[in-house]
Amino acid sequence: MEIKALKESGEFEGYASTFGGEPDSYGDVIAPGAFSESLAAHKAAGTMPKLFWQHKRDEPIGKWLEAAEDAKGLLMKGRLNMDVQRAREAYSLLKSGDIDGLSIGYRIKEYSVDTESGVWTLERLDLKEVSVVSIGANENATITSVKAFKAAHQLTDKLKAGDRLTEREFETWLKGLGFSNSEAERAARVCLKGQGDPAVAADNGTAFLRALLSA
Known about the structure:
This protein is of the alpha+beta class. The chain folds into 2 domains: 136 residues, Serine Protease, Human Cytomegalovirus Protease, Chain A (Alpha-Beta Barrel); 66 residues, no CATH class. Strands 1, 2, 3, 4, 5, 6, 7 and 8 form an 8-stranded mixed sheet that branches. A hairpin with a 3-residue loop joins strand 5 and strand 6. Helix 5 packs across helix 6. The longest helix has 19 residues. The two termini are 38 Å apart. 30% of the residues are buried. About 5% of the residues have low confidence.
């Protein structure tokens, strides 16, 4: 989304996400109120979503000061840390208009799917961070978690149908639940590789996932 104000002090604001409208390039629409629960949780904890450069967790460039939903979408107000080189670079790029994007990083907590169009309506989101980006909806960053979640949704249907999951599918399913890459890989090794006969291990892994689904 586009940044709409920028001050010499490094303070800026803009919409990180807008509600409704046409689905984005990944077939998603964000419902009004999708961030309300997460914003309330941040307020209660005295925290804010992180402010990163291009969704890179090792490159914070300032902090968000305010976050609120209005009729249009999620309006963010933040301040770049001008003592940080990357933040100064971001400021220069924003000021010149070379970049003008904000992009959200989040976990999906509740959604609905239109079976005819395939459009996902994201109804409850846990907002983790909002980044200054060159291009919004960065495919290699925040959308990665969304893709994993959608893949896990499809694998859940496969599991419910009684099919086995491969080791790679097992990892993808766990990532969709919020496991990190290393955690999912370790779980796959323990549940699938470390139980002797591969067919038995696969059956045990399937039983484990079904137990999680019914919990």
